Amino acid sequence: MSKLLNEAEVRKLIPIGHSKYYELIGSGALRSVKIGRRRLVTEQAVADYISSLDQAAA
Asked: What is the pLDDT of residue 30?
């Protein structure tokens, strides 16, 4: 099971700014879940996003 990460934790793993974080979530490039008012991202979603960047570069 993947851990749920908040914005600060995701931004430590992916060096992006606040606006880019929400842009990626809004476009669906970075999958997220909403629990109450909080928007969280799984570790697997971060790994999938990084993998998609690697595939696009190839």
From this structure: 98
CB contact at 8 A, 23 and 7: no
Alpha-carbon gap, residue 43 to 14, rounded angstroms: 11
The predicted model scores a pTM of: 0.88
Quick: pLDDT tens for 26-43. Answer: 999 999 999 999 999 999
55: tokens are: 């595939």
DSSP line for 3-57:
PEE-HHHHHHHS---HHHHHHHHHHTSS--EEETTEEEEEHHHHHHHHHHHHHHH
One-letter identity of residue 52: S
- How far is it, in rounded angstroms, from Cα 21 to Cα 13? 12
